[in-house]
Amino acid sequence: FFPVGENSSRQMIISTNEQIIHTSKVEMDLAERVKELECLYSISSVFESPENIELAIQRSVPRIRSGLQFPEKAAVSIEFDKKHYGDKECTEIKSFLKKDIVVNEKIRGRIQVCSDKEFQFLEEESKLIREVAGIMAKAIEKNDRTRAMEHQRKLLLKKNEKLLELTTQCGESKNRLETLFNAITDTILVIDNKYN
After folding, report:
1. What are residue 11's DSSP bridge partners?
2. Does the CA dihedral 108-111-116-118 come out positive or negative?
3. What does the mean pLDDT of the chain come to?
4. Whole-angstrom Cα distance, residue 84 to residue 73?
5. Using CA atoms, how far apart are residues 181 and 48, in angstroms rounded to an integer?
6. Can you tell me the distance from the alpha carbon of 26 to that of 106, in angstroms, rounded to the nearest whole number?
7. Are 75 and 115 in contact (CB under 8 A)?
């Protein structure tokens, strides 16, 4: 970089064509990594505390697409628990990425990115899909645990209510028996079937 004039804040670049092309490629690669990071941050925020996991999955489809190098050429499809979210599957698949969504060592779905155009997805895009599948799996696992705990809490509350009811009934029976025994003036002898 060289100043254009003595008192000028503008600068002039003297470079070869190869350096300019290299700089341009580095800038494009950097822009792609920024898109991928923004995609991951966006999806992480959607799945951070989802009230409805299906809605979170649906909202993640356009976010995944936005993280790809050529979003206009890609179709994003997510299958989860036999439900389909996102774009319809490609009819003529020429390029694709896919990653299973594994929750508690069980495949619960998959993310598919495909195109009917012939081009190579970037390695970084493959990593992006893998990370998104991981984020989804963790959120689904957390959601499943929360639902299971809520179910257990409700069961325990019902059992607790039944125990309280039985305790009340036992107390009432005890009071009736005490009243009965207190009203009897004769001696009472209790023996078992062996006359003990």
Report:
1. 3
2. negative
3. 83
4. 20
5. 64
6. 40
7. yes
